[in-house]
Amino acid sequence: LMSPRDNKGQAKIKSKGTHSRGSTHSRGAVKKKRKRPVAAAVKKPTDHASSSRSVDFCGHISGADGEDLDTLLIGEGDFGYAAALALERGSCANLTATTLSSESATHALSSDAIDNIETVKACGGSVAFKVDATALHSSDVVMRRRGKKGFARIIFNFPASSSSAVGVPSVDANQELLRGLFKSILSQQLLSKQPAGLLQLTLRPSDASAWKLGEVARIAGLRLKSSAPFDGSHCPCYTPSCEEALTYSLFEPPPKIDPEQRKAALVAAVAKAHPELRLGPTGQTYKEAWKQRHKKGRG
């Protein structure tokens, strides 16, 4: 079983305190000839697969209007990242942070682990231990917090398999980890559909290239929406384990519908709404179908 190596980010929890969220022109006496307005330059569409714009640290878990999104964190180490998010937002009732380690092993991992966990809980978040990224369905906490809609964000910072330590090649082990992660998420429909949820993986670009992240995701049924530098400067209480890293945002595309299936579904919907029409499988009323056959017979 492939198991992720936990994120080693540290949260430097500071003392209690508040955290901030976050011309007129004079007209001359002499009338001058007005210049024609210059048309604004049309911006070229950017490539969805890459972007130079950095990912806002707190933007991971906040929507367009600032609301907290249902968020699942995978592979936390001492819960430093989760605590940093909680402190930045001030509250995190929709945050679920998980780790592969047991509670006792997590406490022994870092002197800050206990404080980080208490910070997440105090801000309304949920914490779960012994959660395998390749078997998320086995966690009662994850499935309960999933709700009916799923998570709007699933975040895994610096995923890495520990299987390479027992003789399995690093690339193969980490590709297997990604496959297991994607299968676990998609099979249990952990990502929300409306609006489409995002799986955000923060990796070194060299690792993403070596592991063929885009290809593995595409085969699993995910698509790469964007990649951008991870920017932790918005929250100084968290230090990522790698300074040069990119956050890759993946999403599940809507299923392709066959035209015949679409037509059949439309006919069924109309027939249900208007039973008096007595629609046939082609979308015609029986009377129209009879007339059409009658014309063909006469021809």
From TrEMBL:
A single BP term in Gene Ontology: rRNA base methylation
Biased composition (Basic residues): 11-37
Annotated ranges, domain 25S rRNA (uridine-N(3))-methyltransferase BMT5-like: 72-239
InterPro entries in alphabetical order: BMT5-like
UniProt superkingdom: Eukaryota
Region ranges (Disordered): 1-54, 278-299
MF GO annotations: rRNA (uridine-N3-)-methyltransferase activity
Pfam families cross-referenced by the UniProt entry: BMT5-like
Protein name per its UniProtKB record: 25S rRNA (uridine-N(3))-methyltransferase BMT5-like domain-containing protein
Species this chain originates from: Haptolina brevifila
Upper taxonomic lineage: Eukaryota, Haptista, Haptophyta, Prymnesiophyceae, Prymnesiales
